[in-house]
Amino acid sequence: MEIAFVLYPGMTALDLIGPYEVLAHQEGVAAHFVAATGEPVTADAGLVIAPTTTFGELDRADVVVVPGSSAWERVLADGAVAAWLREVHPTATWTTSVCTGSTLLAEAGILTGRPATTHWAVRDALAARGAVVSTDRVVRDGSVITAAGVSAGIDMALTLVGLIWGDDRAKFTQLVIEYAPEPPYDAGSPETAPAELVAFARSALEGRSA
């Protein structure tokens, strides 16, 4: 099974690495890090990842994983990722996104009229691009699976393992990675965080998106 993990400058590393750790260890998986060029890609917090192939070289994959970015508007404007998604999505078995990666799926026309989720700060922006926005942590619509912000990528990947390899394998994977979250604070969503914190976070994120 060929899985393409999309790289681009300024992406959020955990959006990619969380699903990678869940999916790349499954039986029969060949993982590819695909980017516009073969040059190393620097994530938003400085992690550097080397592509193993390029958009021009890889024209199909069984599974596509698209991470998000705090600078998602700049990535949309560049257009390279969305153009590649338009090419590979029709033959992919599963097309997935994490966080604001959903805006790239929407830009490629994949989410038009479909239910999808994303980071809470860009729900309106995703709706404006034709998606039917959900506040759920993971949303599946046919062959498309979207995850909410950053850490939800692990949930999305475990969901995908269950769909492809079965529930027992997904539970085994969850156990092996010891995924049993017990966060020290109840501030992980705009519904539970204090209003003033949500306003501050929204302002900070808007400043980083351009």
Please, how many helices? 8
Instruction: Describe the main β-sheet briefly.
Output: 7 strands, mixed
* Average pLDDT score: 96
User: Helices and strands: which structural class?
Assistant: alpha/beta
Give the uncertain stretches in residue-range form: none
- Shape assignment: globular
| End-to-end CA span | 36 Å
β-strand amount: 15-25%
Cα gyration radius (Å): 16 Å
Order of helices and strands: EHEEEEEHHEHEHEEEHHH
DSSP helix fraction? 25-40%
- What is the number of E strands? 11
Strand order of the largest sheet: 5-2-1-6-7-11-10
Domain DJ-1/PfpI: 2-161
Pfam families: DJ-1_PfpI (PF01965)
Protein name: DJ-1/PfpI family protein
InterPro entries: Class_I_gatase-like, DJ-1/PfpI, INH-QAR
Index terms:
11 strands; 210 residues; DJ-1/PfpI; DJ-1/PfpI family protein; Class_I_gatase-like; two-stranded antiparallel ribbon; 38% helix; seven-stranded mixed β-sheet; alpha/beta; INH-QAR; 8 helices
Model description:
The protein has 210 residues and is of the alpha/beta class. The longest helix is centred in the C-terminal third of the chain and has 15 residues, at 195-209. Strands 5-2-1-6-7-11-10 form a 7-stranded mixed β-sheet, sandwiched between helices. Strands 3-4 form a two-stranded antiparallel sheet. Strands 8-9 form a two-stranded parallel sheet. The mean pLDDT is 96. The protein contains 8 helices and 11 strands. A hairpin with a 5-residue loop joins strand 3 and strand 4 (48-49). This is DJ-1/PfpI family protein. It comes from Saccharothrix algeriensis. It holds the Pfam family DJ-1_PfpI. InterPro entries: Class_I_gatase-like, DJ-1/PfpI, INH-QAR.
